[in-house]
Amino acid sequence: MSWGQKLIVTVGAFVITFITVCTFFKEDISFILTSRTIEREYGQQAENSYFLEDHFMFVDNHEEAEVSSRQEIINSIYYLINSGVSYSKRYCAKDYDTCYQDMESISSDTNLLSILNNYVHPYNSFDSIIFNFDENVIEIEIKHTYTEEEKQQINNRIDTILQQNVRDNMTVKEKIKTLHDYIINHAEYDTLKTENINDTTYRSNTAYGVLIEGFGICSGYSDAMKIFLDKLNIINYKVSNDQHIWNLVLLDGTWFHLDLTWDDPVSDKNITRDNYFLITTKTLETLNDGVHYFDKVTFSEAK
To answer: What domains, with CATH codes, occur in the chain?
Structure first.
């Protein structure tokens, strides 16, 4: 056999072997290519300046692009919301057989997804979130609640409020009380929104409505307070149920409830109350108001 014939035979044998290997390990090769692409493009996405590094019992940041359990999917979605990104991809581990079913369950659970907003900075919270799932690849598209212009206006107002009202020699509790009273004294409960949920006179469901327009509902009050708390580096998140939302604050190693909405009653006179200012869960439950109930598994810190 000549040299040329030997070369043809060798090349032919290699091609046959290569095709056989590719056919036999098609899924493995596809997974490797897909995972490497996602790792390269989305594995190191930058976190914005409103990213919170706090750790909670219900959810925590999962930075890796690969997910291998239902909880890791939830933690990964939370991490992306917390990071302030608008689009990203994640992929399921090769041996994660129930990934599709878990993703379907999570994406259809609007209550769970809404709760994730409670743990992030309001500026990173989503107004809508869309999932696409195909061949173990999860696509996530996030539309945020606040516009850049709204964030700038709110930040300017917050800086002014802090400069004029909060002093360095105040205790943390005094700072929180000062901000609690300021918000209540400069905002009114939006009765138009309660009479008609579709009313758009004010952005009262956001901190913009409370701090810029002077009108809010519970989500607006709790967002405004959370922005201040985050600005002061006080660990906190929002507690919610099917009809109400308020703040939970970690102070001196203890978690306290803080509800500006219920401390700002609807009245012809601007009355400031302290009934829901930094109270324990035990105290909250003794009030027995029929509104401040919550899932103690989801909001474990408030037990």
So the answer is: 26-144 (no CATH), 148-302 (3.10.620)
